[in-house]
Amino acid sequence: MKKIKNKIAIVLILLLIGSVSFPSQTCALEPKIKDVLITNDAENVLLYARLVNGFKPEMELAILAGIPTVFTMWIEVYEQRPLLWDKTITRRQIKRTIKYDNLKKTFSVLTKNSEPEIFPNFESAQKAISDFNGIVAVPMSSLVKGRSYYAMIQLKMDKVRLPLHMEYVFTFVSLWDFETSWYRQNFTY
C-alpha cells in the first residue's frame, strides 16, 4: 500500500514539473495593441497605435497563397462625466486589407477610400498593416475645452471567406480569427 502511494506521489510530482516546464497553447503570444499615443493637430485628435503579434504562421501561409485578409480597427471616443454615464462622442472603424499577387510577387495593402499601397516583401506589408499612424479619432470641434475624454481601441481580424464556402472544408482557417482586448487611453482637451 505504501509503495502505491509513493508511486502516485512521484507521478503527480512529475506531472506538476512537466506542466510548469513546457509552455501550453494558452501561453502563446496574443495579439495586443501597443505604443498608443493621442495627440492633435489644428483640426483633429490623432491616434497612433501598433499591433504586435498579429500574424500567426498559418496566416502568413494563407496570405502568401493569395487569400485576402482584413484587419479592422474600432475607435470609440467618450467624454468622462462623474455623475452620469460617459457620453459617446464618436465611433469609427478602419479596415485594412492585405493581399498577395502571385503573378507580380507584390503585396498590396488597401485602406478604404484610398489607393492601394504596393510592397515588394511581406515584412514591409506587415509593418504597414500593423502601424496605425495619424488616424483621425475625433474632430476637435466635437470636444469641449477643459473636459476629460478617453479613447477605446480594439483590433480584429475579420473572418476569412474562401471561394465556394471552402472555409467549412479547411477548418484551420477559423483558428486564426482574433481580436485584441479593448485598450483605453485617457486624454484631455
Essential attributes:
alpha+beta, 10 strands, 189 residues, three-stranded antiparallel β-sheet, single chain
Task: Give the topology.
Layout: H1 2-21, E1 32-40, E2 44-52, H2 57-64, E3 69-79, E4 87-101, E5 106-111, E6 117-119, H3 122-130, E7 131-139, E8 148-157, E9 178-179, E10 183-188
Report what the structure shows.
The protein has 189 residues and is α+β, with helices and mostly antiparallel strands. The chain has one domain. The protein is 20% helix and 42% strand. The protein is built from three helices and ten strands, in the order H-E-E-H-E-E-E-E-H-E-E-E-E. The model is unreliable at 23-27 (pLDDT under 50).
Contiguous runs where pLDDT drops below 50 for at least 5 residues: 23-27
Q: Report mean pLDDT, rounded to a whole number.
A: 81
* Proportion of beta-strand residues: 35-45%
Could you spell the SSE succession in H and E letters? HEEHEEEEHEEEE
As a percent range, the share of helical residues equals: 10-25%
Rg over C-alpha atoms, rounded to the nearest angstrom: 23 Å
**Number of self-contained structural domains:** 1
Tell me the number of helical segments per DSSP (H or I, 4 or more residues long): 3
In short:
This protein is α+β, with helices and mostly antiparallel strands and 189 residues long. The chain has helices spanning 2-21, 57-64, 122-130; strands spanning 32-40, 44-52, 69-79, 87-101, 106-111, 117-119, 131-139, 148-157, 178-179, 183-188.
